Automatic annotation (TrEMBL):
The lineage of its organism: Bacteria, Pseudomonadati, Bacteroidota, Flavobacteriia, Flavobacteriales. It holds the Pfam family FtsX. Its main location: membrane. One of its GO terms (cellular component) is plasma membrane. InterPro entries: ABC-4/HrtB_transporter, ABC3_permease_C, MacB_PCD. It is a multi-pass membrane protein. Keywords: Cell membrane, Membrane, Transmembrane, Transmembrane helix. Residues 288-405 form the ABC3 transporter permease C-terminal domain. It comes from Leeuwenhoekiella aestuarii. Residues 207-229 are annotated as: Disordered. It is found in: Cell membrane. The chain crosses the membrane at residues 16-35, 287-308, 328-359, 379-402. This is Putative ABC transport system permease protein. Residues 19-199 form the MacB-like periplasmic core domain.
């Protein structure tokens, strides 16, 4: 007696029940696996993008916005701060390193970031080709920027004012590509890095051009005033700070926020708060998936139970021909586990399709590739839980076989 063949024929005998069981179970499995991988991958991506940054020093406003804007480059800045004032604070012996950054322009939606040579060290970025910048108006491309724009060493391009792509406010001073970073799967991949002087020079020329249009007769005075202002009041967007030890993290942010006109935000603390908020959504989706899983198991139970009730005569007849209770149980159990196996494979495929769509949307919105991470322990626990729940449903369905009265079933059939 080929038990596998009988189990397969039972599945195809009631295709609608089998389809509904597999569909609902696949959806719940796909949701559970995809939400776990998505949550883990995004958290890992954000944490990696922090690099060696312990604190962000910037203008007053929302600390989360400051972190998202200055570290993850996913929001607008809270404003500018004085470079001189920021440098005074960062001379504290508790601070190991302080990297100034300034931005406000883009090229095809990719932010142009003014900073110094220590910025790449925060993300352990290495050159794929080219070299360090040596003067203003030279840039190094992140790997994503180079791939998406097609720019190469020696190419020049014009930046646009603002953080989103536009063709209205295009600067007239070209930037030259001198290097390209290797992929790091961190935030630097989507940035165009240039010296701070590039940002200042571009905006000095832009200011002079605007002043020229509005006050042409006073051009010389305005230009001199603009140069004087830029010379003595350089501004940056924020300062990325690394501490020598935990004492800096404990003491400096509070003192800065209380005693200065600037704001200090701790990236890891702010991201933890953000994940706590998003975790509510993750848990809600997970509970929906578990509810669908419970419904799926009930569907499988009903399907198997009805099969036993409808085929009671056939099962009793098989007993009279020498089949044992264990063989009959195996027929039903194999049918249930075949449905589960198909659902597991389908659910895993659905999760990967969903993740591909989610990562594509994230890349389209933020120009950032996400490295897929598999939370193996959590996923194994989920699969084991699914198997346990389904096994319980199958066991409950096959209990009538153990209580089956063969002679009574055969006599009633006659």
């Amino acid at each position: 007696m080929n038990i596998w063949k009988i189990s397969l024929s039972n599945i195809f005998h009631k295709p609608l029940y089998a389809f509904l069981s597999v569909l609902s179970l696949s959806i719940s499995i796909g949701l559970l696996l995809s939400i776990q991988q998505l949550d883990t991958s995004i958290q890992n991506q954000f944490e990696n993008s922090l690099g060696d940054v312990d604190m962000v020093l910037g203008a007053k406003g929302s600390p989360l916005q400051l972190v998202l804007a200055s570290v993850l480059h996913m929001d607008n800045p809270t404003g500018n701060i004085s470079l001189t004032e920021a440098e005074k604070i960062t001379k504290n012996p508790l601070i190991k390193n302080a990297v100034p950054i300034s931005y406000g322009d883009n090229y095809k939606g990719f932010r142009i970031l003014g900073t110094n040579k220590e910025f790449a060290d925060l993300y352990e970025a290495e050159f794929a080709e080219g070299e360090e910048v040596n003067q203003s108006m030279e840039v190094i491309l992140g790997s994503t920027v180079a791939e998406e724009t097609g720019l190469k060493i020696g190419d020049t391009f014009m930046s646009s004012h603002g953080l989103t792509e536009n063709t209205v406010e295009v600067h007239k001073h070209p930037l030259t590509v001198v290097g390209v970073y290797k992929p790091t799967y961190k935030v630097i991949d989507k940035l165009i890095v240039t010296p701070l002087e590039s940002i200042w020079d571009v905006h000095v020329h832009r200011k002079e051009h605007q002043d020229e249009e509005h006050t042409e007769k006073h051009h010389g005075d305005v230009q001199g005033a603009a140069h004087h202002e830029e010379e003595h009041e350089r501004e940056i967007t924020s300062m990325l700070v690394s501490f020598r030890n935990a004492m800096g993290t404990l003491t400096m942010p509070r003192r800065i926020n209380k005693e200065t006109s600037m704001q200090a935000a701790l990236p890891r603390y702010e991201l933890e708060r953000l994940f706590n908020f998003t975790g509510i959504g993750v848990r809600a989706i997970s509970w929906i998936a578990y509810i669908i899983l419970a419904i799926s198991c009930i569907t499988i139970f009903i399907s198997l139970f009805k099969m036993i009730q409808e085929r009671a005569f056939d099962l009793a007849l098989m007993r009279t021909y020498g089949a044992s209770n264990f063989q009959l149980i195996r027929i039903v159990a194999y049918e249930g586990f075949l449905l589960v196996l198909i659902a597991l494979v389908t659910g895993a495929l659905l999760s990967q399709v969903g993740l591909h769509l989610a990562f594509s949307a994230f890349k389209h919105g933020y120009n950032q590739d996400i490295l897929l991470k598999f939370p193996c322990v959590q996923m194994v626990k989920t699969v084991v839980l699914i198997l346990i729940i389904v096994t319980i449903a199958i066991v409950l369905a096959i209990l009538p076989i153990l209580k089956m009265n063969v002679s009574k079933i055969l006599s009633n059939a006659k």
